[in-house]
Write a structure and sequence with these properties.
The protein has 322 residues and is an alpha/beta fold. The chain has two domains: 137 residues, Aspartate/ornithine carbamoyltransferase (Rossmann fold), CATH 3.40.50.1370; 161 residues, Aspartate/ornithine carbamoyltransferase (Rossmann fold), CATH 3.40.50. It has eleven helices and nine strands. The strands form two sheets. Strands 7-6-5-8-9 form a five-stranded parallel sheet, sandwiched between helices. The chain has a four-stranded parallel sheet with strand order 2-1-3-4, sandwiched between helices. The radius of gyration is 19 Å and the shape is globular.
Length: 322
């Protein structure tokens, strides 16, 4: 792969390759010495124009465990805050010899612009751009689903398996969620059936033309779709500039995974959340802390998946994959 910019154009074979290599990476993380020499001599720059904890730390850990040199670049306190353009920043990174750039940016399309601009020779990995996509989050979610649903006790983690026939209900602030979009495209490619649940004001524009079932009632979705996975999304108040629902209490009552709804879920149903969680709003503590919750697994699996993505981007022969 040359770049990893989205899941909408990610071929099924490429997605499965990333997931299977992530299984190999996960196995190395059970050893006493977790570090691999794979990317020794390579330089990875984490270029974050938005605040992040989980994603930035996860990418940093992934790069360091592959023995890459890591430079963390935050827009705050840098020349970006003085008005430096993405082009000038990219050319600076080119000058210092960056081999890979992990970029998070508030503008949808910024990673694609960086990858196609000719400003930099580095492989570009999208760590979230605006409300567009967050491909490694979707990949780690699919990795987690595959392990839990098909991993069994043989240690294969579901290697080689797709998610054919798996029912996934994604609930919450879909309109502002790059996680929801990336998950939809990837899960559909892997054969899953996806349902979006949210009030109409929080449904993405154009969703009814996508390969997804759109519902407004969470109770209806839990009853009709018999989900194998329920993924709750955070209400992104920082991206909202209008009243998308009357108040938090009404939202929790209608679209939150509270104790009562959690209690009627089938035993097999996984509960997922990309974090950070608003406990008591989109998810109850009972659901978040239950044995069926994969929240902490998602964080751990994120390192393995990002190790796989960096390995494919920065080692071996590169071929275009935008």
């Amino acid at each position: 792969m040359r770049h990893l910019l989205d899941t909408r154009t990610l071929a099924k074979d490429d997605a499965l390759q990333i997931l299977d290599i992530a299984e190999d990476m996960a196995a190395t993380q059970q050893r006493e010495v977790k570090k691999l020499p794979t990317l020794r001599g390579k330089t990875v720059v984490n270029l974050f124009y938005e605040d992040s904890t989980r994603t930035r730390i996860s990418f940093e850990a992934a790069a360091k465990r592959l023995s890459a040199d890591v430079i963390n670049f935050s827009a705050k306190g840098s020349s970006v805050s003085k008005g430096e353009s993405l082009k000038d920043t990219a050319q600076t990174l080119q000058a210092i010899g960056a081999d890979g750039v992990v970029i998070r940016h508030p503008a949808s399309g910024a990673p694609a612009r960086l990858a196609s601009s000719g400003w930099i020779d580095a492989g570009v990995l999208n760590a979230g751009d605006g409300t567009h996509e967050h491909p490694t989050q979707a990949l780690l979610d699919a990795f987690t689903m595959r392990r839990r649903l098909f991993g069994g006790t043989d240690g294969t983690g579901g290697r080689g398996r797709d998610l054919d026939g798996v029912s996934v209900v994604i609930v919450g602030d879909l309109a502002h969620s790059r996680v929801a979009r990336s998950n939809l495209w990837l899960l559909t490619t892997l054969g899953a059936n996806v349902t979006f649940v949210a009030p109409e004001t929080l449904q993405p524009y154009g969703a009814r033309t996508w390969p997804v079932t759109v519902r407004h009632s969470l109770d209806e979705a839990l009853r009709e779709d018999e989900p194998d996975v329920v993924m709750m999304l955070r209400i992104q108040s920082e991206r909202m500039h209008a009243a998308y629902f009357p108040n938090e209490r009404e939202y929790a009552r209608n679209w939150g995974l509270d104790d009562e709804r959690f209690g009627v879920l089938p035993e097999r149903t996984l509960v997922m959340h990309p974090g950070p969680m608003n406990r008591g709003l989109e998810i109850s503590s009972t659901a978040a802390d239950s044995a069926r919750s994969t929240v902490l697994e998602q964080v751990a699996n994120g390192v393995s998946v990002r190790m796989a993505a960096l390995y494919l981007l920065l080692s071996g022969e590169r071929t275009d994959n935008a």
